[in-house]
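Worked problem 6 (solution included).
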Amino acid sequence: MQKFSMHAATIAMGAAICLLSITGCASNEIKWTEEVRLHDGKIVQVKRRTELTESGFPTQNRGFHKYHELCFAPMGIYWKSKPEYRLYVFDIVDGKAYIKVPVQGCTTCMLQGYPAWDAAYFEWNNGAWKKVDENPTLRALRFNLLSATHAGGPYRNERGEVVPAETFDARGLIALADKERRDASIYHSMKNTGRTGPSVAPGACERCKAEKVETSMTSEVFLPSESRTCNW
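Solution. The predicted structure is:
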């Protein structure tokens, strides 16, 4: 009986914390569908999902990405990458699908062979992703995937009210106009600099060659998944 009472008290305390915390105890899984404008102007829809770690009691803020997932059902495409490989570009060129991920930090640069343009490119080929060499066509593909997927903690909305982080989560259908609003600073920077994405001027990986890097990490980009479908 005593054990049961202690357990019940623990549950009650947890519920109270959820009620009192402005971030609450909402799920850190974020999933949505977004419109994507391809290089030729065609607009398609992809499904995406990510999950965030927790920073822990008592702040209950969100932490880092656990993974990045993307599905494009018409071509049977599925992607699930490690958290350090964020999605910047999804495009279809001559009937083949490509994804671009930024390569950031000296460890990741070393693992991916110090790419000259600080990015890695993958082609969907026979039901799997294959890393391909950069070329002018791929380098010209513009940033087109949502970056501002969530807030890390409570924030002030347009009315100046402090609201829970999950109210900013991407959910439902994110149209092109929604993406331009959420990622306004990125698109503004691209317009002003003429660059194809939000990354800094290329050369960071090249500079990393002078750094001594030791790591137990591998060059593997992808994570295993029990399900390779878009039924989220």
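Discussion: Helices lie at 2-20, 106-111, 136-139, 176-182, 184-193, 204-208.
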